[in-house]
Amino acid sequence: MENKSDLPIVLIAIDGRGGSGKSTLAKLLAKKFSAEIIHTDDFASWDNPTEWWPLVIEKVFLPIKNGAIALNYPRTKWWENRNPEPAINQPVTRVMILEGVSALRKEFRPYISCGILVDAPIEVCRQRVVERDKTTDESPEKIKELWAEWLKDENDYFERDRPERVADIIIDGTMSLHEQVKGISL
Length: 186
Hints:
This protein is of the alpha/beta class. It is built from six helices and seven strands, in the order βαβαββββαααβα. The protein has a five-stranded parallel β-sheet. It has a two-stranded antiparallel sheet with strand order 3-4.
């Protein structure tokens, strides 16, 4: 895989809808390539679903470009009962993975070496996120309401940035990710 970005490392962006399988794919690729993962969910939140991206450039891409060997950044709070610790001294590895909805946004493309889109039907994604978010203290109704709002912003992003047009690889989120990872090489 050719490094198309202006970063000194290979940065893989894994994009797709919420619940498509991005996090699972990121974990598999991180293991395969001894990579560190940066989650866009550490920057976005229910309160700020779209305008968080400059912080990724400031706290992730620019430090890597300037030779940082470790990253430090705050993590946002999605749920009332969860208070994530900031990322402190996260190693910068030869391969880094940016995982999350809008990882292939236009503003990030100068920094991305390879883009992967995980594609899955909206109905499958919605079912997965409701199941995943049952671990919060929110009611299923509240979770569905929050995700309905999120879906509007997500749809706006997909319409504006068209990640499927710039992705180097498209993965089927309804099929075995373990099998599909085997075909990805650097």
